[in-house]
Amino acid sequence: MRRITGRVTDTEWMAENEEYALEIMRVAREHARRFGHPELALYADELAYAMAHREVEAPQTLFERVALAIRQKNGPADRAD
Question: I need a labelling partner for 21 at 20 to 30 A (CA). Which of 29, 36, 47, 54 fits?
Answer without folding.
Answer: 36
